[in-house]
Every structure is written in structure tokens, then in C-alpha cells.
Amino acid sequence: MQDGLLISDGDPAPVGDVFNKDCAGRVIVEHITGRWSALIIAALKPGPLRFSELRDKIDGVSEKMLSQKLRLLVRDGLIDRTVEPSVPPKVSYELSELGRGVSRPLDGLVRWIAANGHAVLAAQQRHDRGTG
Question: What InterPro entries does the entry give (predicted)?
């Protein structure tokens, strides 16, 4: 066992080598970089939000998908879920310490996309026209 992670047959998973097909960390990469997960993490960077606020902030995500991804990210320890005892209960989500750590590189990616998205779109158009 290495860092407490095992693959299904009980052999130690090569933790940290996400290029290895048996690396347990590969699942974590998928969880963080999934279509909605990265946006959820980015949306929570400024501070806690309730479910409806997250849904409204992330245009296009369904309630079902948002709920699934939030459960996954809470399970991974990237997001903390807080329930206030009231009627009805108020549930909020915020980045955990681990989540704040991963939000920094994701924030850099979001800023890069904002600054360079037009160049990527232009490259796609050149490629599609057969000139690039």
C-alpha cells in the first residue's frame, strides 16, 4: 500500500504517476477536470454558495448533474457541505482546504482561456478550412 491507495486486485497503486493506467490518482484527475467539476470549483473560489446560486452561476448545468458532481467533490474532500438547522434546511457548499489548493491552478487555466480563447477558436477555424 502506498499513500493508502490500492487498485482493485490489492496491489499498490503507483500513486503520482497519472500516466500509468493503474494509477489511483487518475480517477482524481477525472473528477477535477470533468466538464462540470472544474466550473463548480471555479464558481466556489470566491466563497460559499447555496445549490440554487451554483445552478444559476453555472449556465447550462442541470440540477441532476450539479447534484451528482457536488456529491462526488464532497466525497473527494474538495468541497465542504454545510447544513444549517432551519426549516427548510439551508445547505451551502464551499471549497475545503484541498479544494482551495486545486482552485489556484484551475483559476490560472480559466484566466488563460479568457485571454487566449479567441486564438484557439481562430486555430479551429483555420484547421476546419484546411489552412492550418
Answer: HTH_HxlR, WH-like_DNA-bd_sf, WH_DNA-bd_sf
Peptide bond into 105 cis (omega under 30): no
In a domain, 16, yes or no: no
Query: Cβ atoms within 10 A of the Cβ of 28, count?
Result: 16
Q: What is the domain-level CATH number for residue 73?
A: 1.10.10.10
Residue 64: what residue type? K
Side by side, which strands form the sheet with 79-84? 49-50, 90-95, 79-84
pLDDT in tens, 10-31: 555 666 788 888 888 888 888 9
Round to whole Å and give the CA distance between 120 and 48: 32
Q: Is 50 helix (H, G, I), strand (E, B) or coil?
A: strand
Tell me the residue range of the domain where 101 lies. Answer: 34-129
SS3 of 94-105 = EECHHHHHHHHH
pTM: 0.80
